[in-house]
Design goal:
mainly beta; UDP N-Acetylglucosamine Acyltransferase, domain 1; 3 helices; 26 strands
Length: 252
């Protein structure tokens, strides 16, 4: 039986339903859940909202936290209702939009944003100023997905349904969109990838030349420069991976 919009939003808020889930190794979008979020925006009215000493004017209330939730929430971390944050997560001053899912042990660092419907796995670190884009419409479109044990360096931007597979390390300032060329430069021949960062990849920002009517200019790309050692302790290798490859300045 199809759930009502309010029922679906409540289930999303509790983490009992997700906008996207991995089934048999493939991420699948829950179109019914996304349609409920879209409908929720259309039916909610703008109102004055209270969250502790703060007041807002919006359509969707923010979560109210209790110690039993098991989430460390630092002022001004804001999570809209309809998003789920699992126990053991740490939220520095940051923003998480409706439909998003943040799993246990994950750190959302200062001024990082997790857009609508984005899926963030276990033991992920989103560094300061990271922008994870929202993908709400069309309903069948895949959201941004960050799998378990991923490290995302400061000021990275990940949008338009990009998939970051388990254990990847992104150096500071990497920009990933649906049209970004991802170049694996670890072998004699360059391999071009689109739409995802493979498991345990170490990635830094780069540029490639492109011809325009006015001339040739450099445009952003992402360079896969190595592979994270999966046998190394995750918490250590998150910081060490770039240093081992001589790119430690890109970690900040």
């Amino acid at each position: 039986m199809k759930k009502t919009t309010k029922e679906m939003i409540k289930l999303l808020d509790q983490g009992k339903v997700r906008v996207a889930e991995k089934r048999n190794g493939v991420w699948t979008v829950n179109i019914e859940a996304k349609e409920a979020i879209i409908d929720f925006f259309k039916t909610q009215k703008v109102a004055e909202l209270k969250a502790g000493p703060f007041s807002y004017v919006d359509k969707i209330p923010v979560k109210k936290w209790k110690l039993k939730d098991g989430v460390r929430v630092v002022p001004q971390a804001i999570v809209r209702q309809g998003a789920f944050v699992n126990k053991g997560a740490i939220l520095m001053p940051s923003y998480i939009n409706i439909g998003a899912y943040v799993d246990e042990g994950t750190m959302i660092d200062t001024w990082a944003t997790v857009g609508s419907c984005a899926q963030v796995g276990k033991n992920v670190h989103l560094s300061g100023g990271v922008g994870i884009g929202g993908v709400l419409e069309p309903a069948q479109a895949a959201p941004v997905i960050i799998e378990d044990n991923v490290f995302v360096g400061s000021r990275c931007i990940i949008v338009e349904g990009i998939l970051i597979e388990e254990g990847a390390v992104l150096g500071a300032g990497v920009v990933l969109t649906a049209s970004t060329k991802i170049l694996d430069v670890t072998q004699k021949e360059v391999v071009t990838i689109k739409g995802k960062i493979p498991k345990n990849s170490v990635v830094i920002p780069g540029t490639i030349p492109k011809d325009f009517p006015a001339g040739k200019f450099e445009v952003p790309c992402a360079l896969i420069i190595g592979t994270r050692n999966a046998s190394t302790d995750k918490k250590t290798s998150l910081n060490d991976a770039l240093r081992m490859l001589g790119t430690h300045s890109l970690l900040a």
